[in-house]
Design brief:
By secondary structure, the protein is of the alpha/beta class. It is built from 9 helices and 5 strands. The structure holds adenosine monophosphate. Adenosine monophosphate binds next to helix 2 and helix 3.
């Protein structure tokens, strides 16, 4: 099973990706988590990524794509994975297509968490009170939503035209959303 989970910042992708990963015993690969780990370890990649992350901008495609290529080449991701936060640009879609083509495989589904934008902002502001994330200020939160709308939302049309988008209502309790995803995915 090779899946992507998509939705705007604050839609609950990370939480739901972890549930799906456990349920299907597949790795959850979050580019945001990999960047954050590099930032805290002070690696070269982390230093480069931090400038963009703190401003709510996307890390350049060539940096992100190279990182994902490496991660997907690892043994645990060979047969199955759920990608959280990647791809986010048209260029990243092409790179992922190329990686999967070279392995002779393809995506099984793109889970789209459908949420109300205003509620999202409220959720993110609440998370900002406790997260300590440098990208959790109101200005950056709003900017991240704009970047998502401009750069990432169009990918849903790309995957939609391939007939692999699975829309799931992302509003309500975490557990309710988890149950909806569970019901929507093949057993
Ligand atoms: P996330 O935790 O997925 O919201 O990611 C946090 C930040 O990491 C984003 O705001 C971007 O700066 C960066 N990032 C994560 N994934 C990507 C990606 N696929 N392309 C570019 N930047 C990314």
């Amino acid at each position: 099973m090779r899946l992507i989970i998509m939705g705007p910042p604050g839609a609950g992708k990370g939480t739901q990706a972890k549930f799906i990963a456990e349920h299907f015993k597949i790795p959850a690969i979050s580019t945001g988590d990999i960047f954050r780990a590099n930032v805290s370890e002070g690696t070269e990649l982390g230093i480069e990524a931090k400038r963009y992350m703190d401003a709510g901008e996307y890390v350049p495609d060539e940096v992100t794509n190279a990182m994902v290529k490496d991660r997907l080449a690892q043994d645990d991701a060979r047969d199955a994975f759920i990608l959280d936060g990647y791809p986010r640009t048209v260029d990243q879609v092409s790179t992922l297509d190329g990686i999967l083509d070279s392995l002779g495989t393809k995506l099984d589904g793109v889970i789209e968490l459908v949420v109300d934008p205003e509620e999202l902002i409220q959720r993110l502001l609440k998370r900002a009170e406790t997260s300590g994330r440098a990208d959790d200020t109101e200005q950056v939160i709003r900017h991240r939503q704009e970047v998502y709308t401009a750069e990432t939302a169009p990918l849903l049309e790309v995957y939609g035209s391939r007939g692999i988008v699975i829309e799931v209502d992302g509003m309500g309790d975490v557990d309710e959303v988890t149950q909806r995803i569970d019901a929507a995915l093949p057993a």
